[in-house]
Specification:
5 domains; three-stranded antiparallel sheet; 23 helices; mainly alpha; about 525 residues
């Protein structure tokens, strides 16, 4: 409440033009004050008149709130182009000293000059001080692992979240931790049987799983970059955008002129963000154009008609519900009555088919439906698509006895890994409906098992996996495990024969003849 009162007084003086806000670039939001915890920052024009106004505001705040300002711990920082007379006048009115090099703000250095190793050398000292306190204590290797991972490596995290720590500082911290790991006694002397880089590999590869500080530092900075990309902190995003990339976005931003060390640090993670970032394209406003080597849907053609097809399909669907919309092809501007126009009849798509190696598939049988033609294109293009998915599922008790078996067919064109994910989704739905609360699902698709147990992505395969993870929440105790194919032959046999059956088929407690011989071998 007191802080809100202070902000209100400052805004009232700004409205009266007694104080002027600070701006760092053209188009950036103006700032008059920043309040956080026990730290308060006020920005105004470096003149005696505005300094006296700020002094009156602070005195009034003291009288109203009862909170006294400690001017001995306060200071003023002025821009380098401020003359000496103005500096002396501002300091005299406020009763504080002129700080050319401000110290820290919430533990962070306010200014980082050219001597970066000297600025961040305290991090090595803090880690070394912590390690020295453990030297004379009898600690096992397991205890050292815990201390290094939970305590020592965590010390620089706060500063790594905002600054790119110099490589020399990271090397110094890693050398100190390596000496503690191999050392014996107070001197930390011992034979280093393995380099720190080898110790940083995962345990499955013979390491100990320690962090590589520089790579971890870049990962921490990537979180700040991601906030800029997604505009999570509007004020910071607006300031950075106006100062460093006013005409583009963060992914295409450059270092710029006279950048701060914070911006240099965040920009270090730009390549990492680019590799993991995917753009969302508004399909109704952008006309797709594939780049060389990227998503050439129609052989060597370079025009894609997804947006046009979607618009026309939507218009035709709404017309069936008596919602009249213009059905105009956005390429040739002709009124069309069928969606097939976009795929085969438009002058633009005809050029694409003629330039592609698949033109014969379109022109040889003109009476085929669009779906039949596209089906032949999928088969001729060598794009391993599965036109239907056979699903087989077997439920056993803890002794391996058959409780239930079933098969089904899912129509559609799918990639093999998508087909595996759909099979798991069908099995989960089937088992959930049978109300079994404790289950272990075994699958011979390692990629699918890894995705269900933690891997994430933005593909259609991962969308199916998310549906599977939602279904897993219906079970009290559930595991999804990988098993070899030779131990899953019954399910494969059911999946194969499902294509020859008229519809979903189930067997309760009694197995069909064609899988009886496999049941014992799969136990």
């Amino acid at each position: 409440m007191c802080a809100e009162g202070l902000s209100s007084i400052i805004r009232r003086n700004e409205d009266a033009s007694l104080l002027h806000r600070c701006t760092i670039a053209r188009g950036a939001p103006t700032i008059s004050h920043l309040l956080f915890a026990d730290y308060c920052y006020f920005f105004f024009k470096a003149s005696g008149a505005e300094a006296s106004v700020m002094k009156r505001i602070l005195n009034r705040y003291e009288n109203i709130s009862g909170q006294r300002i400690n001017y001995a711990k306060s200071g003023v920082t002025l821009s380098p182009n401020t003359n000496e007379e103005s500096r002396l006048e501002v300091c005299t009115h406020l009763g504080v000293s002129d700080q050319q090099n401000p110290s820290n703000y919430l533990g962070m250095p306010m200014l980082v000059g050219r001597k970066k190793n000297e600025t961040f050398s305290f991090l090595v000292e803090r880690v070394q001080q912590k390690l020295n306190g453990w030297q004379n204590q009898p600690i096992s290797k397991a205890g050292k692992v815990v201390l290094l991972k939970i305590v020592a490596q965590v010390i620089p995290n706060f500063w790594m979240n905002m600054f790119l720590i110099p490589m020399e500082i990271c090397d110094g911290i890693e050398k100190a931790m390596n000496a503690f790991w191999w050392g014996n006694g107070s001197a930390n002397k011992g034979i280093k049987w393995m380099s720190w880089e080898r110790l940083c590999t995962v345990k499955e590869d013979g390491g100990m799983g320690f962090k590589k500080l520089h790579e971890f530092n870049v990962a921490m900075l990537e979180k700040q970059a991601w906030r800029l990309v997604n505009n999570i902190n509007p004020l910071v995003t607006q300031l950075m955008h106006a100062r460093y990339f006013p005409k583009t976005d963060f992914l295409n931003a450059s270092i710029g002129a006279n950048p701060s060390y914070v911006w240099r640090s965040i920009l270090e993670s730009q390549d990492v963000v680019r590799k993991g970032c995917r753009r969302r394209i508004e399909i109704l406003s952008d006309r797709f154009q594939s780049q060389a080597g990227e998503g050439k849907t129609l052989g060597s053609g370079n025009r894609m008609t997804n947006a046009n097809l979607l618009c026309l399909s939507t218009a035709h669907a709404l017309a069936m519900k008596r919602v009249n919309l213009p059905t105009v092809c956005s390429w040739c501007l002709r009124n069309v009555k069928e969606d097939i126009h976009v795929l085969f009849q438009c002058c633009f798509t005809r050029e694409v088919w003629e330039d592609s190696r698949l033109s014969s598939l379109v022109t040889t049988r003109p009476n085929d439906t669009a779906w039949t033609v596209l089906q032949r294109i999928f088969q001729a293009g060598g794009n391993e698509q599965i036109m239907m998915v056979g699903v087989g599922c077997v439920i056993r008790d803890e002794w391996g006895n058959l409780l239930r078996a079933g098969s089904n067919v899912v129509q559609g064109s799918y990639h093999p890994r998508e087909a595996e994910a759909i099979s798991l989704k069908e099995a989960l739905t089937w088992t959930k409906d049978w109300k079994r609360s404790k289950c272990v699902f075994e699958c011979d698709a390692k990629l699918l098992v890894d995705a269900v147990n933690g891997s994430r992505g933005n593909t259609y395969f991962h969308a199916i996996v998310e549906d599977c993870t939602d279904l897993l929440k219906y079970f009290d105790e559930v595991l999804v495990l990988f098993t070899h194919r030779f131990a899953n032959m019954v399910a494969h046999c059911l999946a194969r024969v499902s294509c020859s059956m008229s519809g979903p088929t189930e067997w309760l407690y009694t197995a069909p003849d064609f899988i009886i011989c496999m049941l014992d071998s799969d136990k």
